[in-house]
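Handout, section 4.2: multi-component inputs.
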Amino acid sequence: NEFSIVIHGGAGFMKEDNFSPEKQKAYKKKLEEAIRVGYTILKDGGSSLDAVEKTINILEDSPLFNAGKGAVFTNEGTNEHDASIMDGKTLNAGASAGTKTVKNPINLARAIMEKSPHVMLAREGAETFAEDQGLTIVDPEYFFTEKRMKALERTKASENKKVTALYDATLKASKFG
Amino acid sequence: TVGCAALDKHGNLAAGTSTGGMTNKRWGRIGDSPIIGAGTYANNNTCAVSSTGWGEYFIRGMVAYDISALMAYKNLSLKEAAHEVIQNKLPSIDEGQGNGGIIAVDKNGNIAMEFNTSGMFRATMNDKGELYIGIFK
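Output:
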């Protein structure tokens, strides 16, 4: 292949029986929209870094996936994002951790890689750097989704049931990214 | 978690991963997604990888780099290396708890989508415009 692209939107113990056709269609539609963005960049001779960043942006902006807009909640009821990117040509890399206000964390990871002498920045410092680089900053409320809040409430309720994590499906599933 | 790996017309590989982490996380917990070598790795001599799964195990397994290393040092194909790490190495770390998967592309544009769970949201496209989308195993 002259070029190619592959994406994921998370792995887990999803079962076809629990996924309505409408839900499957929604996920597949968004996956196709995302990968076509990257495909077009590559087809037009663009860089793999651009393809990766712009493709991930589509997934980050969707509430369907646990990243960006669709991020899960922490114990404190906040959303904290992590991201990283790596360039196979130079072995240069960038990563951010624990940010709460950066709309597209993959953009921050790339900015860290290309515009700082560091590999990883975290939390408030990373947010300050993102602001300095002119990246889009949002109110933490932007990341609120009803579905993820209910998931947090279910997880906390399971914790209080004194059932061991090993045998509790909700708690076990909550470990997955 | 979401991720992407790509090979461009200039022969350059890249990979990226972005995540909200795990529900109910505390104490500033960080998983594998921002850890280079665990959640993300790219090397033009081997492959580009993005991981998704139970971060603590993917960090201990240095999953993304391990796939690249098996290709570099053992001359395994991308599919062989990904299978070895996800199906054989990860579950053995701690009695089958290393659940998740990876997507990857090698320097020749070959693709791997390996996971040891019942599903992974995934899609691929090649230079012929052929599209594949999958959710379940």
